[in-house]
Amino acid sequence: MDQFRAALGRFLTGELDFSGLEQSLVDSLASDETVGPQILALLDELYNGGRLPHQLYAALKKRLLGHVTRPSDGTTTAADTTSTDTAAGAGPDDSTRLRTPSADSTDQGAEKTRFRLPQASSGGNRTRMRDQTDATGPLTSPQDMATGSASRPSGTPVSPSAPDHGSSATGATGATGATGAAGAAGAAGAAGAAGAAGAAGATGATGATGATGATGATGATSAKGATGATGATGATGATAGTGASIGSSWGHPSDWSGAAGDSRIVDVGTVIKNRFILESVLGRGGMGVVYKAKDLRKEEAQDRNPYVAVKILNEEFKRHPDSLKALQRESRKAQSLAHPNVVTVFDFDRDGGTVFMTMEYLEGESLDKFNKRHSGRGVPVAKALELIEGLSNGLAYAHHKGVVHSDFKPGNAFLTNDGLVKIFDFGIARAAKQTEAVTGEKTLFDAASLGALTPAYASCEMLEGKDPDPRDDVYALACVSYELFSGRHPFDKLPAASARDRGLVPERIKSLSMRQWQGLMEGLAFDRDSRSPSVRQFLAGLKPKPVQKAVIAGVVTTALLVLALGVLWFPGYLERQRLDDIVVAIQSGNRLLIEEVNPELLELSADARASVFLDSETRSRYVQFVKQQIETVFAPAEERYDYPAAAQMLDELESLMPDSASVAELQESVASTLDAARLQQQDKVRELLDGGALIALQGSPNVVDVLQTLKQMDPEDTTDQDALIPLRFASQAASAFEAGDLDVAEVLVEEGRRFAPDDAVFASLGDRITIERNAIMKADLESRIQAALPQLNTFEDFESLRPDLVGLLALDPESAVLASALTRLRAATDATLESDIAGHRYGAAREALEQVNGILPEDFVQSGLARLNAAEASGVSALVAEVEGLVAANPEDTAALEKIFADLESTDADPIVMIRVRDAAAGAYIAQARVAISGDDPDTAGDLLARGADTRPSPSVGDEIALLERQLERNAALAAAEDDEQRAQLQEQSRLETAGLKQQFEEGLSQPALTVAQGRSLLGVLDQLEAQQIEVAADSRARIAGLLVQGTQQLAQQDQWTEALAAARDAAALMPGVATLSDNVARLEKDNFERLNRRRVSVAVTALDDLLTSPKFDLEWSEQINRQIARLESLLPEDDATLAGATQQAALVYLQRAQDMRRAERFELAEQALARANALMPGFAGLALEQDRLRQARETYRERTENRARLAQIDSLKERLRQEARAGQIDRARRTLEQVALQLPADNEFVVAEGPNLIAAAYFDSAQAAARRRQFEQALALVDRGLEFAPDNAPLIDARVRYADQAAATRQPSTGSQNQSSPAPGAGQNQATAANDRIRQSVETGTNIDETALRNDLARLRELDPSLYDETSTWASAQFVRQTEALLADGRVEEARARSDLGMRLFPSDRALAAIRIPAPASAGPDPCASADLVGRGAIREGSCRDAIAAGGNGPYLVVVPGATAGAPPFAISKYEITVREYNAYCSSTALCPEFETRDDLVPVTHLSIADARNYAAWLSIETGRRYRLPTATEWRHAARAETDAIRWNFNCQVREGGKLVRGLSLQPVAAGTDNNWGLRNYIGNAREWVDAGDRLEARGGAFTDSKENCSVEARVEHDGEPDNVTGMRLVRIIE
Q1: I need a labelling partner for 1093 at 20 to 30 A (CA). Which of 948, 1011, 1330, 1477 fits?
Q2: pLDDT-based confidence at 1392, cuts 50/70/90?
Q3: Would strands 307-313 and 288-295 be described as parallel, antiparallel, or unpaired?
C-alpha cells in the first residue's frame, strides 16, 4: 500500500509516467493480494475529493479490478458468479476472469463487486458500459491532478460500485481467438458471442442466429476468445470485426462532428474506447498527436507486445466538414500498404468525439531527431544511402499502389532500433491519377484542402496547388537525402518556390561523386519535368556505379602497381578525378551542376583547362551553358540589358577556350545583339524626344528610362551627351511651367540638369518655378488669412494663424492682407495686455508680447513692455496700500483680505505679486502688534501676530513674526516671575538681547549698501528698538532708504538691470511714501530704456552686417534683412546716419546680386534683386543702368538659344550617323549624312570627310563579314560602294585587291559565248601581255617592288591567260630564289629575308623558296626549339616548344626529333595536327581566306587545298621568323615511328564491337589519344596528313574513315592536292 501511495504521489507531481504507476500497482497487489480494497478506497477518496482526474481513476480502477483473489476457504464469491445463471456450456471458471454485476446487484455485494471486471460482449457492435470506465472528463497534466484542478464531469457516479445502468451483459470477444463453443441463449436478446471470425452462424463454428438467445456469460476474456457452447447470436446482434481490424462504431458525421460529441481533453492517462491507455506522447504533427498506448485486449491475450501507436486527430482537422471522408480514404489507402518500409495501419475509430487511428508501435526515433543529432555534418555516405534506399523502397511501393504521400519529410519517417526505416502518415496522401482507372473509384473530396503539407519539403507544384504526382515525393526525398548527406536542408528550409525565385543553388556535397551529385540535383529540380521521373531512377542516380568482376581484377592489379610506384601517383590521380568530375558536370548539360563547378574550372591551369575541353561535346555543352548564362543577364528582347556581365562571361569563356571558333561566333553574336539593341534604344530615345515622353511622370516608356537602359548595356554609351536632350527637357519644362504644372516642370528641370549640370537655362527655369511657387504660397496664405480675419477678435484667435502670418511676412512684408491682419493683431494684443494688467497677470502679459515679437513692429513690443512695467509697479503699490489700509481700519475683519487674495489667485496673478501683497498685509499686522506690545497688551499683540502669520507671508516676514512672538513670551515670563531674583535674571536677559539688537542695527547701518531682504530685517530691528523706547538716530529710516538705493545702483553698475529694477520696486514697496526710493525706480527705468535702445540698435546693426557679409538671398535671409532695417527704423529717427548707411549697404548688396545673376543668365533672380534694392532705396543710383543691361542680356540670350537649338540638332544628327555606321545600318547612315549636309556648308569637314569615312568603314566591316562567308563577289561590291564615299580609304583599297583575287579564284570558268561586258579577244590578249611585261620588269629589277601592283598583275594574268601565268609565275618564283641566295651569299641576311618573305607571300607553294635556310632575325630571339634537351623528349610535359607570332599569340606546339638520316640535324615537327582554330587565326589575320565555322575548332583542319596548306606554312614562317613547311615522306615516317614499330593503340580509326561502330565516328580533337615515344599524337587516324614525296604529293597515316587494319604508319595514298574532308596537315619547322 505504501509503495503504491508513494508512486501515485510521484505520478501526480510529474516524476513518474503512467507505465511506472501501473507497474507499482501490479507490484503492490503481487506482494499483498489483500491490499486491493485499501487501494480502491484510496482511489475513491481521492476521486470523490476532486483530487484525482476521472480518466486516471477509471484506468486504475479497471486495472485493479483485473486482479482477483479467491477467499482462503475456497468458497465461491460474488466475483465468481453473476446475478443471472451461468449459461450451460460456459467456459472454464478461471479465477482471473471476472463477471459483470447485473443491474439489480445489491449494496451488500458492493465490496465484492468492486473487484469484478465489466464484461463486454464478443459481438462486433459492443454496447459501451455506463460506469466510470466509460465516462469522460478533462485530464491535462500531472500537476493538475496534484492540485485537484481536473474535476469529474457532471453526472459521473461518485461510487466506483455504482450499478451498470442500462448495460447489457455481453461477453467480450478475444483479440484474435478462433470460434468457441456455442454460448447459452441470452435472456435479453443482446449480441451473441461470436468467434474471432465474427460470422453469425449455428452452434460451434457456424454460430447460427438464435431466436432470442442472450449472450453467454463466460468466455469474456479468454485468450482464444471462446464463448459459450450455444453461442447463438441474438436477433439484434451485429457482425463482429475480422482479422487484425479493430471494430468501429461510426455514426453519421452530423452526430459527432464539430461541437457535437465528446469535448474532453485527451492526454496521457486517457483511456480510449475502454481499451487503449495513452501512456506517453510519441510525436505531434499537422493532423494530431501520436501516443504510445497499451492495448488491453492484447494484454488480456497475453501478447508479448501489447503496445500500439494511437494517433488522436486534432480539433482543427475534425472541424473540417469532410474530415470523415478524408479519414476513411486515409485508412483505406494506409491499410492497403503492406511493406517493410511502411508503418502498418490497423484501423481508425472514434470514442465519442475523439477520432483516432491505431498503428503498429515502433521503438527507435523519428528521422528528424536522427537528423538533429547529425546536424551540420550529416552521416557517412554508405549509411545515408542505406537509409535513402529504405525510404525509396517504401515510397516506390506506395507509388506502385497509386498512393502519393504528399507530405513526406523527416518527421514522417521512423528509424527503428533494428535499423529499419519506415514511412508513416499517409494521412493526407492523395491517389495518383492512374489509380482511378485501376480501381474504378473516384473520391470527389481532395484532402489537399486541409492544407496538410510541409512547405520546406513540398515541391513547387504542390505549393501552387497542382494535382499530386509521384515526382512531388521525389523532391521531398531529395531534400531528405541532402540532409542525410550534409546535415542541413538544401535550401535552409525555404519553400521550393522561394528558393527558385531567389535563384538558390545547394552547396556541393564533396563526399558525393559527380555522378551521384548530378543524380541528387535532378531530384531537387524545381521543375517537375526536369526532376527524376521516379523514386527508383532517383535512387539509381545516387547509388554507386556497380563494378564488374573484370574491372575489380583490373583495379586490384592497378592497386598493386600503384603500391609499387609509390605515393607519387596519388596526387595526379586526385587531380584527374577532379577534372573528370568537372567534365561530367559539363557534359550533363545541367545548369546547376555546371554553375557548381564553374569557379573551380576558372581556377585551373591552362593545361588542365585544355584537358577538360578535349572533347567536342564538352566544349559544345559549355559554350551552350555560357550562352544560357548570358541570356539570363543580357537578352534585350526580354528586357535584360546587363551587357557588362555578359562581356565578363565571354572573357572568362575565351580564357578557357582561346581561339575557339564557337567562342568567336558567340562573341560576334552577342556583339551583334548589343549593336542592334543599342541602336534600337537610341532610336527609341530620338522617337521619345520627338514625342515629348521625357520622364516617367508622363507615362512609360520615357527618355530617362531608355537612357538608363543604354547605360546599363554600355556604361561608356554617350547617347546621353546628345546636345538635343537638355534642350528638349528645357523646352518641355518651360511649356509645363506656362501651363501651371509646376510639379512636372520641376521634375523636368531636375532631370535635365543631369544631362547639363551647368546649363543656365535650367537654373533660370528653377528660379522661375521657385518664384511662382512663392507667389502661389503667398496667394494661399493671403486667402487663408483673409478668410480668417472676421473671426479674429481675441488674442487667442490668432494662435492658429501665427505660422501663416510669419510665412506671409517672409514672402511679402508689404502685403495689404498682412497689414490688415497685423492691425487686428495689434488691437487684440492691446486688449489682452489691458486684461492681464488689470488681473495682475504680468507674466502672461510678457508672454503675449514675446509671441508677437518678430510679427508686430519692434516699437509696439517695446512700448507694450514699458506699459507693462509701469502698470506692474503702480498696481502692486495700490494693492499694498489697500491691504495695509484694511488692516489698519479693522484688524479683526479678515474677510476683505481673503477676498483680495482669492481675486489674485483667480486671475492667475504673478506669484511675486501675491508674495508682495501678503507681505504687506502681514507687515500691517506686525506694526499693530508692536503698538500693542508697547501698550502692554500682549493678548492683542499675540492675536495680531497670529493673524499676520495666517496671511502666509514670505519667510523673512515670517521670521519677524516669530521674533515678536518670542518677545511676548519673554514679557509673559517676566510678569509671571515669582521672586526678585528670577525677575532680575529675566530683565538682564532682555537687556542683553536689546543691546544685541541695537548693535545689530548699528552694524546694518554701517554697510555701504543693503539688499531688500537686509533692509526689511533692519527695519524690523528698528521697530523693536523703538517699541522698547531705545534711543536711535532720528534719520535711521532715511539712512536705510539711502542704503537700499545704493544696493540697486550697484546691481545696475554690474549690468544686472532686471535684478536692479526688481530690487528698486521692492524697496519702494517696503518703505512706501519714501521719495528717495520712488525717484530711484523712475531713474532706473529711464536709464534701462535708453540702455536697451542702444543695445537694440547695436544688435540690429551687427546682425545686418553679418547678413550682408554672407548673403544667401533666400526668403529667410531677405526677411531677416527687412526685419533688421525695420528694427533700426523703429529705434532711430529718419535722418539718422546709422539708419541711412545700413539701408544703403543692403541696397548695394542687392544691386551686386542683380549683376551676378544677369551674368549667370538667371534673369528672374536678377529682376527680383533689383526690385528689393528699389524697395529699400527708391531711385538708388545704378538701378536704372542695371535694368537696361538686364533687358539687353535677355535679348542676347534669346538669340543665342535659338542658334544653339539648331546646332544641337546638327550635333544630334552627327551622333546618330556614328551610331548607325557602328551598327552597320548603312542605308540609314547615308540618309542621316544627307540630312547633315542640308544644314551645313558644302565644304564642312564632317560633310566631306568624317561622315563619308564613317560610312566607308561600315561598308568595310560588311565586306569583311561577307568574305568570312566566302561571298567574295558581294564583298567586292560592298568595297566598291564604300570607295564611292571615300575613294582614298586605304583599308578599302587594300581589301578591293584582296577580294578581287578571291572572287576571281572562286569564279567558275565561262563556257559558251562571252557576255556583252567581256573584253574582245584581242583586247584581253593585249592586257595579258601588258601585265606579263610589268611582272617580269618588276621582278627582274628586284628593288622597290610594289607588292600590291605585282599581286594585281599576277591575278589579272591568271584570269586572262592561265598558261602564260603558269610560265611567268614559275619564272618569277625562281627569280626570287636566285635573288635570295645571292643576297645571302653577300651576307645581306635581312634583305634576303625580306625578298624570301615577299616571294613566299606571292608564291607560297614554291618548295624551293620554303627550303632556303635563313638565320632567324634578331627580333625573334633565341630559338625555343634549339635546346639539345628537347630532342626526343616530346612525350613529357616540358618536352615541347612553340614560336611566338608577331601579330599576337603562338604557333602550334612542336616536338624536336632526331635527324631522319645519319648526320642530319634534328628538326621540329608539330606535336598535333594543325587545328581549325590555328588555321582560322591565319585567315583572321590576313583576310586571305574565310574562317571555318564549326562547333569544335580543336579538330584537325580539313577541306583545304595544298595551296591553302602551303600558304598557311608561309604565313607562319613570316610571322614567327622561322621556317615552316610540309614534312617530307621520310621526315614524317621517321617522326611517326619514333625508332620503333611497337605502338600503343589509341587512335581514331573505325573500330566495331558487336557490329556497332564505336570509334571512327567523326574527327576528334587533336589532343585526344596517346603520344608516341617522341611526343607525336594522332599521327595515325583522325585526319591523314600531307607529305612531300619527291615529285608527288601523298597523304599518310590513314583517316578516321579507315578501318583499324588500314590505319598505320605505312598507310599512304597519292593525293591531288584538292580539298576533301579527311586530309589535313602537320608541319616541319627548321631549327636554326
Answers
A1: 1011
A2: confident
A3: antiparallel
